[in-house]
């Protein structure tokens, strides 16, 4: 790796030949030809104005926790390092907090609790940065980012303009937002999130509907847990089920939980009465992808150096030295066997580059 500066007018440092293995939680090998660290909106504009790099393709990199690198990304990697955490407003019915996109999501959750502003505890220990949280509308244990979202600031990667988007403009869905869609109206590859603002309702109300949390309440006899207790429970549940990316490379759930029609769900139940399914308000059903993969016998199996985690079949892991191609090969083999047995196409959650 070596360093150069952007141009005579700008002092934007550009790193060349950067190893990305440590910058993606799967620990996959790839090299960034050019990498620029973005600490502000102005840094984005400096890069866009750069005579050589400004027009190259760009990959926005946060914590690298939702990414499968199968090759060296073309063009420039923009590593988001916008920092800062602050209380923006205190209303009678909510606290509004703001996080720089480069802040660790989990640190932000812990910090808000320490400050006495609860509301994010169900989303504890999710790997990645605050800026990536709205991109895939992170969710766990009965809560989604969209439920706490106020607005975000982003920079348009074509015009260089700073914009503010509200929840409507972000078009949140299950593990989905406008930032995941290319083409007309979509912002994939077109936008870099710099700050995220969340609205934490007052008075605080616990979100306890998820089975794993109900089980904790029964086990501990604690029927009215406070936010800190829920935070601790969520951390314990996640640690028991999900691999720590610092130890075993992974990108969390590899597939989304598929949504099927009532008819399709009843067909599958007729053949597999134990299938885990949840009714949705629109009459359709969400199926547990982990259960489907597990039922096909994949838990603990490997293809090359990529594998299926022993304690949660929805998580693919790097057994040590895996390439992105091996992860993709394993993912395809899983998709084929789930389709063969259940007629359901699993859709990957992470972005494949
Ligand atoms: N299951 C199996 N075998 C498995 C895995 C799961 O039978 O190998 C069954 C479980 O027994 C359970 C059901 O499937 O009845 C659901 O499992 P779990 O509660 O672990 O949740 P999930 O649906 O697999 C989702 C999210 C997770 C989130 C948890 C908790 C998606 C794609 N994943 O997983 O999010 O932490 O719920 O809310 O929606 C992530 O997105 O990276 C992630 C980890």
Describe this structure in words.
The protein is of the alpha+beta class and 353 residues long. The protein has 8 helices and 21 strands. The strands form 6 sheets. A 5-stranded mixed β-sheet has the order 1-2-3-6-4, with helices on one face. Strand 18 and strand 19 (306-308) form a beta hairpin. The longest helix is centred in the last third of the chain and has 19 residues, at 324-342. The mean pLDDT is 95. Residues 140-141, 241-242, 252-253, 256-257, 276, 288, 290-291, 294, 299, 312-314, 349 line the site of uridine-diphosphate-2(N-acetylglucosaminyl) butyric acid.
Bound molecules: uridine-diphosphate-2(N-acetylglucosaminyl) butyric acid
Report the span from N to C terminus.
21 Å
Q: Name the shape in a single word.
A: globular
| Beta-strand segment tally | 21
Q: How do the strands line up in the largest sheet?
A: 1-2-3-6-4
Strand percentage: 25-35%
If helices are DSSP runs of H or I spanning 4 or more residues, what is the number of helices?
Answer: 8
Largest sheet: 5 strands, mixed
SSE topology string = EEEHEEEEEHEEEEHEHHEEHEEHEEEHE
Radius of gyration: 21 Å
Unreliable parts: none
What share of residues is helical? 10-25%
Helix/strand structural class: alpha+beta
**Mean of the pLDDT scores?**
95
